[in-house]
Write a structure and sequence with these properties.
heterodimer; A: about 280 residues; mainly alpha; MetI-like fold; globular; B: about 290 residues; 3 strands
Chain lengths: ~280, ~290
């Protein structure tokens, strides 16, 4: 039996690696292809040969993209929206999670069940009325319109609560004896202890907010207010003659910042998703 | 565990925001579905007219059937791929698991609206690399984005590419929460790998797979970005989804009442499919002691 196993092991490993390498190439290819095309002259993109890398690499697409479209402004918009959102949402989520994890109050479990159930509400159901609310507030085409509605995310609260359940009560007890207020305990003891979880949640919130499409499409009206993802998706439409090389520059600019953040933080992000087990 | 009134203050922001941007819109949508309104002037009550118009609207039925075909056409492939990958990447004898996991998850961080542009280029009939490569291996060129028949598979490919890594991680987490003693006991009893998979792994993954199916189903019924950017719903509405049709009616034709009626249909559809999935599984979505502190 054991010799049979030893003999089987090598082919099994080889088969597994072969499958995984093929799959990995499929995952990476569309991104790599887009980046490669962003350095390729547009007439070369539309030639029949199969080239993985540009034959005549050029920065012309980048020059044209940043000259003809407010891409830098759009990048700035994305950074601002994702940044402000992430700071606000992390704070509100941690605060609510603290209450759910460490306090006993009437209807706590019922309220938490309602909170989990809200994740099942189809977002599409709410966009029309939410738009009408936004126009009554005169918030159409503003940054706050794409930040405020999502500030208290059920997923974020759930995720932080799971982490806070693991914080021993003694840490908080001693502060209580010293007479600290609940908010003070939260801010000076709980938040520092939650730093690793907050970092993971923060990254997930940046990714989620940066990549949003439908809601910004509805709310943001001027191309100077667009997020970079929205601006890029409307590149082919905004000007029918936009060369494909330029469109691919847009795609690269929209996608690459998050990929770099992910590559730096991937260990924490993957562990965080597996621990949370739910999506925002 | 402490008792404190301030706990309500801490959780208030979530419930206030959800009341404004969740509860109110849903109620509003149900009411508006009974009115005719173009966004300006006074809405006037029309009873169930919006629904009767909707149910005789061919484009509504087409968008509904497109949505259901796209959902059923990808969910089993997606879950099977995610499960297969998770099983492979759970194997303790495999080196480089962390790298493979990261690569599989990478597409999930890339904005789907931007990636749809890259896929447009890849799917291009004449110059797209997919057709160029297929031709080399002897498969005839396919008009992915320009034919009624292939627009849905193109969207499904983008969808699976983007989503499979995340579900793989969720299933992987489920696999790692299984009791390893069960596998040892099954192995001692002489169960081979296939029997262990069907009798130990799959039953253990039941709550995880239920979660995966529910989340992906709710997401698919609202599918918008992929068809909006990749195919614009075409050609000849072959990839127009319910979500796109709702968006067009609400934000392009300003038929607020009509779009609201569609939202109500979508809501009912979502609740029904979730209930049916629940009946099939007979499990609760949050069984994993999430509710007990």
């Amino acid at each position: 039996m054991s010799t049979l196993r030893a003999r089987n092991r090598l082919p099994r490993k080889m088969v597994a690696h072969t499958v995984l390498i093929v799959v990995s190439v499929a995952f990476l290819f569309p991104i790599a292809w887009m980046i490669s095309a962003s350095f390729t002259p547009s007439d070369e993109i539309f030639s029949s040969g199969i080239h993985l890398f540009p034959v005549h690499p050029t920065l012309e697409n980048y020059r044209m993209a940043f000259q003809s479209f407010p891409l830098l402004r759009n990048l700035g918009n994305s950074i601002l929206i994702a940044g402000v959102y992430t700071i606000g949402a992390s704070f509100l989520c941690a605060l609510a999670a603290f209450a759910f994890a460490k306090f006993d109050f009437p209807f706590r479990n019922a309220l938490f069940a309602i909170l989990l159930a809200t994740m099942m509400v189809p977002a599409l159901m709410t966009i029309l009325p939410a738009f009408i609310i936004m126009s009554d507030l005169h918030w159409v085409n503003t940054y706050q319109s794409v930040i405020v509605p999502f500030l208290a995310s059920a997923f974020g609260i759930f995720f932080m609560r799971q982490y806070m359940l693991g914080i021993p009560d003694e840490f908080i007890d001693s502060a209580r004896i010293d007479g600290a207020s609940n908010f003070r305990i939260f801010w000076t003891i709980v938040v520092p202890l939650c730093r690793p979880a907050l970092a993971v949640l923060g990254i997930m919130q940046i990714i989620g907010q940066w990549n949003q499409f439908l809601w910004p499409l509805i709310m943001l009206r001027d191309s100077s207010m667009y997020t970079v993802v929205l601006a890029v998706a409307s590149l082919p439409a905004s000007n029918f003659n936009t060369p494909w090389g330029v469109v691919m520059v847009g795609g690269t600019v929209a996608v690459l910042p998050l990929i770099l953040i992910f590559l730096v933080m991937q260990r924490g992000i993957i562990a965080g998703i597996m621990a949370g087990g739910l999506k925002g | 565990m402490w008792k404190a009134r301030s706990a309500y203050l801490f959780i208030a922001p979530f419930f206030v925001l959800f009341a404004i941007f969740g509860v109110f819109p849903i109620g509003y949508e149900f009411v508006m579905s009974l009115f005719s309104w173009s966004g300006v002037g006074t809405p006037h009550f029309v009873g169930l007219t919006n629904f009767t118009t909707l149910f005789s609207d061919d484009l509504f039925w087409q968008s509904l059937s497109n949505t259901i075909i796209l959902w059923l056409g990808h969910i089993f492939i997606l879950v099977a791929l995610a499960l297969g990958l998770a099983l492979l990447l759970d194997a303790p004898w495999l080196r480089g698991r962390a790298i493979y996991r990261a690569i599989a998850y990478l597409p999930n961080t890339a904005a789907i609206a931007a990636m749809a542009l890259s896929f447009q280029l890849i799917f291009d009939y004449q110059f797209g690399i997919l057709n160029n490569v297929l031709e080399v291996i002897g498969i005839p060129r396919t008009d992915w984005l320009g034919s009624d028949m292939w627009s849905k598979p193109a969207i499904i490919l983008l969808n699976i590419w983007n989503g499979v890594g995340w579900y793989m991680l969720i299933i992987l987490a489920g696999l790692q929460s299984l009791d390893s003693q069960l596998f040892e006991a099954a192995a001692i009893d002489g169960a081979g790998p296939w029997r262990r998979f069907f009798n130990v792994t799959l039953p253990g993954l039941r709550p995880t797979l239920f979660f995966v199916f529910v989340v992906e189903t709710i997401g698919s019924l609202q599918l918008f970005t992929e068809p909006y950017v990749l195919t614009k719903g075409g050609p000849s509405n072959s990839s127009l989804t319910l979500a796109m049709y709702l968006y067009q009616n609400g934000f392009e034709y300003f038929r607020i009442g009509y779009a609201s009626a569609m939202a109500v249909v979508l809501f009912v559809l979502t609740v029904l499919t979730t209930l049916i999935l629940g009946l099939i599984w007979r499990g609760n979505l949050f069984t994993r002691s999430e509710l007990s502190a």
